[in-house]
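Dear colleague,

Following up on Tuesday's group meeting, I ran the structure prediction for the two-component complex that the binding team flagged. I've pasted the input sequences exactly as they went in, so you can double-check that nothing got truncated or mislabelled along the way. The structure tokens for the whole assembly follow below. Feel free to forward this to whoever is handling the docking comparison.

Inputs:
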Amino acid sequence: MLYQALVVGLVMALGVYSDKGLGDPMLRRPLVMGPIVGLLLGNLEKGVIVGAAIEVVFLGTTQIGGALPSDSMTGSIFGTAFAIITNQSTQIALTLAIPISILAVFLNQLTLFAVGLLEEKFKQLINKENYHAFVLLHYSMIAFQCIVYFLVGMVGILAGTHAIQHILNIIPAVLMNGLNLAGKLLPALGIALLLNMLWDSKLSVFVLFGFVLSAYLKLPLIAIACLGLVISVTIALQENKFSTEIKKVGNNTSNNGDDFFD
Amino acid sequence: MTEKISKDSIKKLNRKNFWRSLTLSGSWNYLNAQGNAIGYMMLPGLKQIYKGDRKKLNQAMKRSIAYCNINSVFSPLLTGIATSMEEENANDPNFDENSINAVKASLMGPLAGIGDSLWWGTFRIITAGIGISLAEKGNVLGPILFLILFNLTYMVPRYFGFSFGYKAGAQFIQKAYKNGLINIITKAATILGLTMVGGMIYTTVTFSTKISFTVSHKSYAIQTILDQIFKGILPLMATLLCLFLIRKKVSANKIIIGIIILAIPLAALGFA
């Protein structure tokens, strides 16, 4: 159990480090975290499949600012690890990942709050012209967050595995079905958050356009992206032409006006 | 105008800003967002610009760590523009120092809009879609391909950001605002993003109902009827309901808890 706990702790730290120190190259997405956990716990294929299943649920969910609407990284790491350690199905891994990623949001908010407590220190170091210490503090914030997640990963596996096994044994089917359905409903929220980020009421018809392309015409996402690109470039070119023409007209009228008053 | 930064050191600064930009959210917090990281990125350039003038360097650093929240792809572009303005400031005693942070602030909004549409709404969705379709069958190439393809779109523009921003300078941005170019690009990116997100709804929100009812010995499945009215009406309605709640300022955490509580009776009723 200690090995598994260590692995999960390290993967948690790696995920946070990739976000804070490697420019968030999407390493912490469930699609990638699942296979890494699987590889280290000796079941790569299961990790890949579980990661893909969890990724579908959280596809719409992205970081907004620095805060997360749901921490799919922590959810997918624990979901995959529990499923492999206790030998459960992909469906169970998914069902576990959902409540865990919701609970993990509070962990995220707590660490961000802790970093905020040191904001004053950053300002003081700048005022004292101590740039070296300023940079060091910036990096130690990264290290601090990695350590927090490492510890949570380790303690979670050491303390949680038996509890999870026990819960899975006694949980009623009604509740399991409910969590299953929640897994299919939650993407709606993720997508809605994405929509809210991009929202422009004048352009909102394009949501319907994309929806019909996929629901009725069954086009794959890459084809939808190409059609979207064609339309957006066409509109951009049209508007560019329009705005230059307006300027021309505007210039002409102002010249005429000057002539008139001269 | 005397050049404070040589051509050679621009190359070096470009590289430094790229690497340093990777720690952009390292000390992210609610008070200052990425401000400290931006200061860290600006530091090597400022040291060259204000060489031998500790007081001015300190003032510039104080400016640099002001609140900033920008799409991380564009962060080197932002520091490039800010560095070119700091250089102007060092050369021109009449330069308005406040304009540096004003230009930075004016960039955050539109660049966030463009970045969200392109990277979070489009590139990530396409590359993850390719990755998922392979990974679902247990193929480890899925996640690997996803990482490679996404980061091609994510890291390459980031690498060229600083020198582009430095050379283009603030005038370029101000001109782009004036002739409406920024608005047009934002609009085009938003159209692409919204189309993509619309396309995602049907394939990712996959619940349906198994409820059926019988009228004069004939059974009707509600899902079939719903599909005839409008295909995928349930996922679309669920998404629009969530959007409505978000726009009514209901927090995402509350919506998640609501979904889980609602899902239990709905599942018992025959939704799956």
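The two ends of chain B are 69 Å apart (CA to CA).

Cheers,
M.
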